[in-house]
Amino acid sequence: MKRELEERLLGAMDRKDHWAWPAFTRAGLTRAQLTVHFRHEYQVYVRDFPVLLARVLGQGPPDEVRRALAENLYEEQTGKLSFGVPHPELFLEMIDGLRIPRASVTGGALEPEARAYRALLDRRSLSAPWIVGAAVLTIFVEGSVHERADVRGARVLAPVDEAILHHPMVKDYGCPPEKLRLPRAHRAVEAGHRRDAWEMVLGHADESTAGAIGEAVEEALAAWLAYRDGVARAMGLAK
């Protein structure tokens, strides 16, 4: 059962790949377009990700899951395992480096698909059983299309200093490298968080929850793809 669940979840993560993403890996976007993108990322999940984790923790999962969630929450809200700065604030440091007014990211309207995706995250983080919300948040939201390679230990990453210098926001959009501390913080803690995510879900899934976990992650994928469609539309991007 657990092997089938793992493959179902990895199959969903294989599809966490949106057609508009290449636009963010090269030059060509205006500051207005970047603002739309970052406004949605910040308001939909970056700002409140610690709150979403806290809701799952508050459902009283087993002790080892509590420890993993608490460590993740602690880093997200305080940054004390990396730079001592909350991750939402590190995100806004990058916004400063891009010379985008913070107010245009922390406020402003969201597309309907973005509101729907956030509503899904709220619902899943608040609803029992805890393991379904944990899967959506720690595997899907924190994970990427590279999840299969990460799980297998097959993904090769450039040294962090090199990765920062070649990051599109630095290379193509002029963000000073010192303002891109968020990827450094992620690099410092993410390997442990990815391991914890899979261990807490696969380690506690059973016949009664496996189906709900898989369905919830598939639902999150569909909502995320629609969300990214909405953001692309607001940015004026087309296939």
Give the secondary structure arrangement, pairings included:
Layout lengths: L1 H13 L16 H16 L2 H9 L5 H16 L8 H11 L5 H4 L5 H15 L3 H12 L5 H6 L7 H6 L2 H4 L9 H22 L7 H26 L4
Helix pairs in contact: 1-13, 2-13, 3-4, 3-7, 3-8, 4-12, 7-8, 7-13, 8-12, 8-13
Structural features, described:
- With 239 residues, this protein is an all-alpha fold.
- It has a single domain, classed as Heme Oxygenase, Chain A (Up-down Bundle), CATH 1.20.910.10.
- Helix content is 67%, strand content 0%.
- The chain contains 13 helices and no strands.
- α3 runs antiparallel to α4 and α3 packs antiparallel against α8.
- The chain is globular.
- The relative contact order is 0.20.
- The mean pLDDT is 96.
> Total helix count?
13
Low-confidence residue ranges: none
In percent, how helical is the residue content? Answer: 55-70%
State the fourth-level CATH superfamily.
Answer: Heme oxygenase-like
- As a percent range, the share of strand residues is under 5%
Structural class: mainly alpha
Rough shape?
A: globular
Architecture (CATH level 2) name:
Up-down Bundle
Predict the CATH topology: Heme Oxygenase, Chain A
Radius of gyration: 17 Å
Major sheet details: none
Please tally the β strands and state the result. Answer: 0
Query: Class, according to the CATH hierarchy?
Result: Mainly Alpha
Q: What is the H/E string?
A: HHHHHHHHHHHHH
Distance between the termini: 38 Å
Mean pLDDT: 96
Number of domains: 1
